[in-house]
């Protein structure tokens, strides 16, 4: 049993698909199949249930995967720790977020301050973030919803009010506030289930025993204001966007309901080594959002 075999097994176990694992590993499919077969022969138990070309991780495989994830994770942490100790200029930081557009300034600032560091980004739902943290695929997650689970550490970056945004000329545009009942029949532009805007919208409508009318849904919340300006509906947006879109033909209203807020958090595994590059990113993210909150408060 060698490290290559364990990495091949982990890739196949995560995908439950030989061809996709081979593509990820950038090797030929027969090589992956032979490696898995040798590993099962060495262990003396099958790790997958097979039916035709379909494979599923069985209970032996699931138990083995948990140990392999831990062992490979420790080795990857050790490599990063030794690189830090050797004073190597560079490193890699991998970040996942529900949307990437609001973080371009943060990412650009980090890149400018640390040009030798490689930055990798993923756009992920909270469910995918949890899996990425579990498998150590990412160092840090920027989440707008709680990421529940043991062994996760959370730093709050920002807590801000969420506002209703409507196009200029809308019947509500001249008002400063509205109730959820006032917007019960409005067509909403929103994200798909899993994103924080959708979760908040459904939570608000549950208080009046209704379901929102969603006329447009997608995976990029950064497109909401463009669709609102086009007259396709209304939407929910964080208050910090109001300053950034000050010149747009939009009206912003407060909703008369408690907890219409978004809490942005930075989440990491507490049992994993956080590289120097990831620590620098964490510290810059905390400072960046503290400054954004200050600017919004004084605007």
Can you give a write-up of this model?
- The protein is globular, with a radius of gyration of 23 Å.
- The model has no long low-confidence stretch (mean pLDDT 89).
- With 299 residues, it is of the alpha/beta class.
- It has ten helices and twelve strands.
- The strands form three sheets. Strands 3, 4, 5, 6, 7, 10, 11 and 12 form an eight-stranded mixed β-sheet that branches. The chain has a two-stranded antiparallel ribbon with strand order 1-2. A two-stranded parallel ribbon has the order 8-9.
- α2 (18-25) crosses α3 (29-43).
- It folds into three domains: 3-82, Winged helix-like DNA-binding domain superfamily/Winged helix DNA-binding domain (Arc Repressor Mutant, subunit A), CATH 1.10.10.10; 90-157 and 263-298, Periplasmic binding protein-like II (D-Maltodextrin-Binding Protein, domain 2, 3-Layer(aba) Sandwich), CATH 3.40.190; 158-262, D-Maltodextrin-Binding Protein, domain 2 (3-Layer(aba) Sandwich), CATH 3.40.190.290.
- β8 (187-191), α7 and β9 (213-218) form a beta-alpha-beta unit.
